[in-house]
Design a protein that fits this description.
The protein contains seven helices and seven strands. It has one domain: 3-Layer(aba) Sandwich (Aminopeptidase), CATH 3.40.630.30.
């Protein structure tokens, strides 16, 4: 199935396809990948759903193949958009840097280093799961970061095998997809949360 999956930068897809991945119902349609992207002082609850969607469209530069930057990748099965991965330089994820404590425990590193990229979300549409889409997205994220000059790429997945994991947790991905893409554990700040990373030569 993986051979049938195509992953492209989000600026190379139509905004309609991008929105189709997030759907109209459920947590993904309410978040639009803004949880980690809000600037200091901005509260997630203060932004209505429509504005979150507008921000995502602006961040991805969807429908603009000539754009020099985007904030993620979109996966296709045939002509159907089926998955999303948020990946860009780590400082773009304000919430990750300033709000979330776990990824930084026991680490002495400049959180604002723009040469370190991060993956904060891996989303596969209902009806298309268990077909290798998440694995293809993780592998494409590694290639995308490398091609765009990253010195390293990090991810902050859950260890799903430890028990029940809700969508609010699993949107960061699971350990297995990043391991298959060549990333290895850096730290284990919690019983169910890992920091994984790949450094590029």
């Amino acid at each position: 199935m993986a051979a049938e999956i195509r992953v492209v930068p989000a600026n190379e897809v139509s905004c309609r396809d991008l929105m189709a991945v997030f759907g109209q119902r459920g947590p993904a349609a309410g978040c639009y990948c803004q949880r980690y992207s809000l600037a200091p002082g901005e509260a997630f609850s203060k932004f209505p759903r429509q504005e979150r969607a507008e921000r995502l469209r602006a961040q991805t530069n969807c429908g603009n193949p000539q754009a020099t930057r985007t904030s993620g990748l979109v996966a296709y099965l045939g002509d159907e958009p089926v998955g999303w991965c948020a990946v860009e330089p780590r400082p773009a994820f304000f919430g990750l840097l300033r709000v979330y404590r776990l990824p930084w425990e026991g680490r002495d590193e400049d959180r604002n280093d723009p040469d370190i990229w991060a993956v904060t979300c891996v989303l596969v549409r209902a009806g298309h799961r268990k077909r290798g889409v998440a694995y293809a997205l993780a592998e494409a994220a590694v290639d995308h970061a490398r091609r765009n000059g990253a010195r390293a790429l990090e991810a902050y997945p859950m260890r799903a095998e430890t028990g029940y994991v809700s969508w609010d947790e699993i949107h960061v991905g699971v350990e297995s997809i990043f391991a298959a893409a060549g990333m290895t554990e850096v730290t284990r700040p919690g019983k169910r949360r890992l920091v994984m990373r790949i450094d590029f030569d």
